[in-house]
Amino acid sequence: MAQIFISHSGKDKNLRDFFSNIFAGTKVKAIFEEFEKIPTGRVTSEKIIRDIEGSKAMFVILSQSVQMYPTREIG
């Protein structure tokens, strides 16, 4: 079964559900990762790397929820 990695905001449940429904009827396994969980340590970089390397494609959903997320530039 092919695998696709999808990065999204947890606030975009409707988009996640949309893509989940699309892939449900196929032989594609969608791996969803919420953008907000990455900096908190709830998702490790090792897991993300494994999921991306095991995927045939990667989608990054850049909605307004992600654009409005507070970030800091270091350095």
Automatic annotation (TrEMBL):
Question: Can you name this protein?
Answer: TIR domain-containing protein
The record, for SUPFAM superfamilies, names: Toll/Interleukin receptor TIR domain (SSF52200)
Q: Which organism is it from?
A: Psychracetigena formicireducens
